[in-house]
# Entry
Amino acid sequence: MADMKYVMMELCRCLFGLSYLAMYVLCCYLLLLGWVATLIIVGVQLVVAGWLIWAMIRAPD
# Structure
């Protein structure tokens, strides 16, 4: 079962990477969206990514 936890950790790491790329793209469009919209979208993405990582680590074997 340790292998399953390793796979889930890798998936969470990939999800974090995708969230980071999305944050970068949003920062590039900061001039188009404005500060408030960019911070809200990035904040929501980071909260969801953090919650998923926490849930996967705490998931039962």
Notes: The mean pLDDT is 79. The chain is about 90% helix and 0% strand.
